[in-house]
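User: Modeling request: complex.
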Amino acid sequence: MQKNNQNRNKMLMFYQKDKTFFQLVIIAVIVFAAVAFMKPEKFLTSENMLSMLAQFPQFGIMTFSVMLAMLLGGIDLSVVAIANLSSITAAFIMTGSWGQGKSGTVVILAGVAAAALTGAAAGWINGVVVYHFRVPAMLATIGTAQVFQGISIAVTQGKAISGLPGAYSEIGRLDMGGVLPIPFLVFAICVLALSFLLNRTTFGSNIYMLGTNRKAAEYSGLKVRAYTLKVFILGGILAAVGGLVMMSRTNSAKADYGDAYTLQCVMIAILGGVDAEGGAGKVRGVAVAVLIVQFIASAINMFPALNTYTKTLIWGLTLIVVMIWRMFSGASHRNR
Amino acid sequence: MKIINKALHKGEFYLALIIIIFCFFVQMRSGQFLTGNNLVDLCVSMIVPSIFCMGMLPVVITGGIDVSFTALASLSIYVGIDILLRTGYEGSVLAAFLLVAALSLILAASNGFFIAVLDLPPLIVTLGTMSVFQGLLLGILNASSQNVLPKGMSDFGMSSLFCVTNKELDITSAMPYSIFILIGVTAGTWFILKHTMLGRGIYASGGNKNAAVRMGFKVKKIKFFVYCYMGVLAGVAAVIRICMARYNPPGNMIGMEMNVIAAVVLGGASLNGGKGTILGTLLGMGLITIMENSLLLLGIPGYWQTLFTGIIIVAGTSVTSYRAAGTRKITAGREGVRHAEE
Amino acid sequence: MSEYVLRVKGICKAFSGVYALNGVNIDIRQGEIHCLAGENGCGKSTLINIISGVYSRDSGEIELNGRQYKRINPAQAIEEGVQVIYQDFAVFPNLTVKENLSVSTMVSGHKKIMNWKESERIARQALDLIGVDIDLEKEVGEISVADKQLVAICRALINDARLLIMDEPTTALTKKEVRTLFKTVMKLKEKGLSILFVSHKLDEVFEICDRYTILRNGRNVLTNSVEKLDNESFAYYMTGRRFSNEKFAAAKKGDTPALEVKDLAVEGAFSDVSFALYPGEIVSVVGLLGSGRTELALTLFGIQKASAGKIIVCGKQIQMGQVADAVKAGIGYVPEDRLTEGLFMKQSIGDNLIISMIENLADKMGILDRKRMKREKQSASSKMKIKCPNLEQAVETLSGGNQQRVVLGKWIARDMDVLILNGPTVGVDIGSKYDIHQVLRELADAGMGILMISDDLPEVLAVSNRGFVLKNGRISAHFETDKISAEALTEMIGV
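Assistant: Request completed. Predicted assembly structure:
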């Protein structure tokens, strides 16, 4: 009897320790069940499962980029612009005359590296504007988003770049042994790497502290400048990875792809328990939130009468409802 | 002397200086800047975004922000025109203004409710409502372009105060009556901010919210008001814009909010609240508008426009924020010196 | 007309079942300066909020100017002439002095239009009430702290104040500004105003108050006239504890200075500053605000760049201008605004304690050793005697005194050689102050060198073994605490 009680206490403590995460898991299960119940013939098929696994990685990875900025108490509205700029860079490299006669792998790797570098550079610019010029992150990224998109438009003259190497677009469609689409694999690696980085390293621990109280971090000997820049650079690279995944799926790159993702990413991050004031939010919570959003998106797609803008409406409503819910449950303040 | 000294310490002075230098540069390069029709064109392109700015300024002064107003205005103008078309209303444009303003007010009240009453963070709330409004317009209502406007509106769009023709290029630019609306809105906003207790309450609650509550200001009502005011002005501006365009591509205004926020900040308002002036805001919008319009005069292709606007926004907000951080340091230093002198 | 401006009888107030006030009585006579004293959390603020109508009481009686109230709202309180000067003064930094002075009158007059002429008239009248002159057109954010306070006082007075409540008004002021404030307060008393002066500084209470009331844990401890009070019993009544008054005797441990400073200078702040601090010592830095003392601390800790000079820690010269380098070399810094600049409120106690040493708890790749983290958290918290059920709970759940311990604890966890404290006990109540002093002594005994910047001369004399005076950016004198009196020290600092 006593042991039973102890076990229950332990379970309760475990639950209390990461309440947000467990609540999210429960919501995910409920949403999944509800959609499966409504349209079992469409939803519960292996094709649908596979296609879902291939769909969410692009915005899921971008969400982590937004999450990083939010951990520092800011917000990043330039993620999609960085993703597009990076994938355009990659597309230029992959389709340019430079690659002629070289092996496909080299060309693709060069493109991927260029995209990552572009993302890092864009993130660095964000970091400089935020840290050195003291511009609030939201405002800074509104501006840099225009700059990045502006560059994209200027170099592409607003057109889409297509004609990527066949091998590259294969990646977007390829399944590992018919089970796991590669985009999902990329997503999974991002989740594991990021959650290791944030939970198990000094870098992660210090980011949470810095996001909670910048002045105190400075007075504790943290290198605030270096951390701010690193967070934004990492965010830029993640955005670039998101852009590469998106490019593999659309088989082209353009300055205004994925416009709706900006809001969607902010919404998912908040839903996933990231505190907009900084210093709190876990990768696993956000990952579950990505799944929830994908379930809902797939459900909407199953009703042909609803156009894509209905999703926008639902994301907006979800965002507001989640905020009100968090306010009343007070969860956002106690969870790290 | 004192006046000059005071001017030198104001951001507006430098903003005006930059605008003058830029205009001078464009004039030198193209010779087309100081022509009557270009100046009229500039005024015309200033009207709508400047009215948006007059709505945004009070919001920013209270320490808030609103990114939903363009979606809000797009939704209310679409519904407004639809109602007018369905009822076959042929009367004056005034009805359109009143109807759209009323619809906007209802939508804006939801922003006000979430932000002022529930005390939720304004950026995220308005990001949310923005997509709700957009989703309602393009998703639920499935809006498509309204190519015929009610008679009152198209008449208003076609009438003009005066026309200026550039003989060299044979272009004519017309000044619409709506310039008076801009003047009225600007004067009204100035009066509210400077000469009413409501306006002083807007500054007070942005400067020190707790103190404002203790002094007896109804801070929640004030916040509620600024979001509603923003919404109503957005609706008014939308009517003007659609009348001038003579058709309504739904959701076409969405995206303009970034420039509006940037203009307000360029004009010296702080996103932390408590600061901001009408003059500065107009100059900020002026700089962005002149910049955008002059690219064509300079022979730069249109697809460079986003990039240049972005650079202006980043550079401008960087300078403003950096200066603000700098002054804080200087004042702190001065205080130290003052004590040392005692 | 009643003899009493305010009589409060048997006031009780509970927040979610916990009594903040339990049967408190206080009465204030016409033209009296009455001190309200007590430790943080004793119910002082709750009482002020009840008198000014912000909170409603659960039971008890309030009588203002002879009128009985069961329930009083802020508007009624103002009508009865109750005005509160809050610690943060509740001024608007972005508005002019003129507007700050007139705004409450305008709001309470239910005006819709802002009349700037009227505003100026009200503002002038307000400043004339106590005969001060402040530039009406200046923004309040640009004027000094003392002037801000004057603005707050004047604003209170024009609303026909009869009872002025001042919540720890001297905390942010320099010695000279406190003198001016006291003159103003005496002037107000002569005009027949009653003042409720909240303070826990005994010398202030002696100097200015007629009577005092002490609260502890939401109950009255005693009300008496000031003549019948001495230092020791005052502290005892406030805390319920007896404190020993022994002086600190430093035992110099080692001949290599923990910190040696040679010809250090920062342009416009201080120059030619040289001194040595040996392990086991507590050295005080005293001087007026603006004498360069805060800049000195910030330079030692690498926040400000020095324009000349050397800093040597344990015999090794260190790179200046980077906090991280200073920390690595073994210098810790406790800022003046400890709670907002020293703590991560939302994060756990444990994480706060190990923040400054976290790099030592990871391997070369930066991967954390969780077991060691746990050990270090526990050892730091037991060293600092932090009372909490669980180190994973957020710091914001701790009491004020325990939070102070966490701030110190984060440096102790790391075993620093030098600890610099800026105003270590500003705004801290007597009990916690004593505890902090105790901790500092223990740290010195354990071999740390401590540099303490303080305004509080009794603290300087009791806690440190020697010190030096900064005046206009230069060291003007050295002193040993057992050979100098507070008066002589005041003389040395100058006014």
